Amino acid sequence: MANNEYLNNKTFELIIKEFQFYKRKKFRSEFIVNDFKETDERRQLKYNDDLKKEILLEKEKSKIETIHKYEEYQSQLAYAFYVLSENIANYAKFTGIDIDDAIQEGVLICFEKIDRFDPRKGKAFNYMTTCILNHYRQLYRSARNYNELKKRYHTFLSDKFDKIVIRNGKERHNSKSNIDKINNIW
After folding, report:
1. Is there a contact between 25 and 52 (Cβ–Cβ < 8 Å)?
2. In the chain, how many H helices and how many E strands?
3. Sign of CA pseudo-dihedral 104, 109, 115, 119
4. What's the CA gap between 54 and 90, in Å, rounded?
5. DSSP symbol at 47
């Protein structure tokens, strides 16, 4: 992808399609090589040892080439997902969420959801954007709920211990008995 180009949907879909193909091929070739090794170990075939070694070397070479292609497309997708996640995170500007963590989570969620993508049902750009936005909304809701829980707990403690005042991170107590109560809790 060119540096000045945001994300071309056709290129993006082509990379996803190739990634999905090589992911399936990688698992298939790993399975074939492992199966061939197990079969060879379990029983002695009536073939020549040179022929078995030749077949195994050919299968392993195919496996290595497939893994190399898979990793190449994976790195291209990681870059594309990073660009997409970064732009969405900068656009959304959810408070209470660290932008760098959100970008990493966006890339990870795209890799989790990529197997569900079907080009016949829609565009890759729209699908991944929706996945990322939904995940960011969930992160925001979780952060908001956590902060509300902290506020409610602070209110509970304030009510329980007769108006404990916290200013600038320092606690001020109205009575000597409050200090004893708090020390008993902790």
Report:
1. no
2. 5, 2
3. negative
4. 54
5. S
- pLDDT tens by residue, 24-57: 998 888 888 888 777 776 655 555 566 677 777 8
Report whether 70 contacts 26 (CB < 8 A): yes
pLDDT tens track for 50-100: 667 777 788 888 889 999 999 999 999 999 899 988 888 888 777 777 888
Low-confidence winner among 72-81, 134-143, 162-171 (lowest mean pLDDT): 162-171
Those residues whose C-beta lies under 8 Å from the C-beta of residue 9, and which sit 6 or more positions away, are 123, 124, 125
Q: Which two structure tokens, joined as six digits, stand for 153?
A: 């707990």
Q: For the CA atoms of the chain, what is the radius of gyration?
A: 28
